[in-house]
Each structure stands twice: as structure tokens, then as C-alpha cells.
Amino acid sequence: MHHTENRGHMGNARKFDEDAVLRARVALLGSGRLTAREELEAYRVLAEVSPRAYLPKLVQVLVHRSYDLGNAELRPALYAEAVAAARRLDAEVPNRDESLRQALRSYELALFAVGRRAEGRVVCEELARTAPYGRLALVLTEEGRHAEAAELYGRQVTSGGADVSDWTLIEWAAELDAAGRREEALKVFGGLVDDTRHRVAEDRAPLASSVWKLNHYAGMLRAAGHRREEAAARREALALLARLALGGEPASRGDIRAMWVTLLALSGRPAEPAATPESPLPPFGAYPFHGWSPDTREAYFGSVTALEREVVALRESGDLPELVTAHRRLTVRRALHRETRGFRDEEALCPLFDEGVALARRLPASPGTLAQALTDRSMFLAAVERYAEAHADFVEAVSLLDGGTPPPIVTRT
To answer: How is the chain split among helix, strand and coil, in percent rounded to 5?
Structure first.
């Protein structure tokens, strides 16, 4: 029997004959396993004849099985169909708003994955009207619109309606800092340091987490010219490392290495080019799994090969200052990549941090650069629970920054 089918958007009229409806029902009720394409086609048919019963299921299939339905270039159209279907849901349908949000979130990520950032940002703006601002703030961050991102974070944190985590505060402080509002950034991050200190005292947070935050806070204080407070923060971090070296963590650590690698990447932001809408960068300050857009993530990690070639060329040319900078940028990328891919073998990363220290030692009259390399390695060693070595590196780094004579090197480069 002949039938007509309009494959336009969900809002367009479609006419299916009775045979098509029967085939769809039989397919869904059958004992065989349907492919994603077969399941989608069945729900498309039934959603037109029984929208109240089948539109919610069509949305679910489009959102949850689109990765099985086509490559990245095709997914935006499928997610757009999911959004259109979700908008057609009656207001009384259970979880109607959440279904629409899920469809919109999937749609915007698919748009970013294929480089359609302007369209993706529009979807983020719609989501931000009914949900926390975090994702839109991250997109603005990627495009170098730090002042706008900082304002969004400020609204989210001060509204009292959203759950504010350590991660949110780190991201907010990072954007305030990037927007040139250093004192406000210090206040936000300092509050996080204080809160972590209290949790550590009550054995509700690991010492290592406090060490990483104190170290980053010290760097922020140094950049703002608060040398006395900087020295105090480093001394506090040093005391915690001494405790770790003597007795390890008094409380359960859990999986906290994401904090270390996120703050490492944030400390490397000044060495990266400025982000712009035309040349976006990852939102440093956010963990990659907490909202990096697919396009910026792919470009950032995809730059490893070019950086490796640059490091080789700089080593051959003997340009040591540029080599130190390029090597650190490469180290940060590799650390982030391995941590987010689950490759947490310290043997792969330790040589990178060792080489960073070795290169910095070759730079004449550059104690700040050596202190940075030693600090990087110290924080990494704390992440892999080699606390005595982490403490030794940090002792030397603090001595260099304080203008003193570093202790003799015994076991490491």
C-alpha cells in the first residue's frame, strides 16, 4: 500500500498508512533486538499517531541512542529533532522540562563538536534561563569573555539556589582573575582555602587537597603582589607536606587527583595564547569532564604533536628559556590527558616533571623558574602519594622563593 512520509522537522505534518503503524507496533513488541535506526523509525511513526504515549519515548531514543545513529556531522540534526519533539510534549507529561533540558544539552554539545559554536552558544543561553549558569559560563570562558563568565558565576554562587561546590568556586575565582579582578578572585579562593582548612581539621578532607589549594593560592597572592601572605600560604602548605611525609593521610583520600591536575592546568594559563571567539581555548579552572566543549578539548589535546616537535626543535637550537616554557606546556597537556583517560601510571608522567626540573636547573640566575618546576613536581608527587619526595622538592622551592640557599640535592635531579 502506498503511503506518504514527510521527513521534515517534528512540527511538520506526517501521514502514515495503517500498515506503517502496524509494522512499528510489531517491531517494538517483537522479541528480536532492534537496531537504533529501526527503533527510531518505529517511534517516529507512533509519535505521530499517538503523541501522548510515544513522544516521550521518541525523545529518549533520539537523546540516548544518537551515537549509534550516525557520525558527529549527523548528530546535530538528530538532537535538533529531539528538542523539537520535547517542545511538543504536553506540560503535564512527567519530567517534561527535564526531557527538554537533556535534549538541549545533547544538542549544544553536538553543535560544538562540529564547530558550530555560535549556534551552540544560543542553546546554552536558553538552558541558562532555567538552569544553573555553569555551562554558559564555561563557553564564555572558552571565548575569552571572562568578565561575562565571572558575572554568571557570581549570580550562581550568590543566588543560594544552586549547590556550590569547590569546583564552582575554583572556576569563579579563575574567571575573576582572568577578568583582572584579582582582589575579588583572592577573596573567593581564599574562602575556599579557609573552608578546606576547617574540613581538614575535622578529618573531612584530605591534607593533599589543602596542599594543592594553598599552593595555588600562594601563586595568586604572588601575582597580586601580596608577598607576606604568599609566604604564609607556602609555609602552611609546607607544614602539611611535612605531616604527610611523616604519617600519610589521616583521612581517606578518595579520588582527588582531578583537583591536582585542574590546578596545574590553571597555573599554566598565562603561557597559553589569549582565548577569543575565533580561537577558543579550554576553560582553564574547570576539570575537562566538568564542561569543556568538544571542539576546545579536541584542539587542546590535538596540539600535543605540534608541541612535541617544538620541544625537539628548541632542544636542538639551544633556546633554553623557550624550551622550558614549551616543555611545561607539553607536560600540562600530557598530565591532563592521562588523568582524564584513566591512564594513571606515574611512570609515564614522572620523567616529564623530572626533565622540567633538570631544564630549569640549567637556566642561569632564574630561581623563580626552578621554583616553579620543583613545585610542579612536588604537587605531582603528592598526587601519587610520594610524600617525602614531594616535601623535599617543596622545601627547595620555598627556599628559592624566599631568597635563601636551597638545601643540597640528594636523590633527585
So the answer is: 70, 0, 30
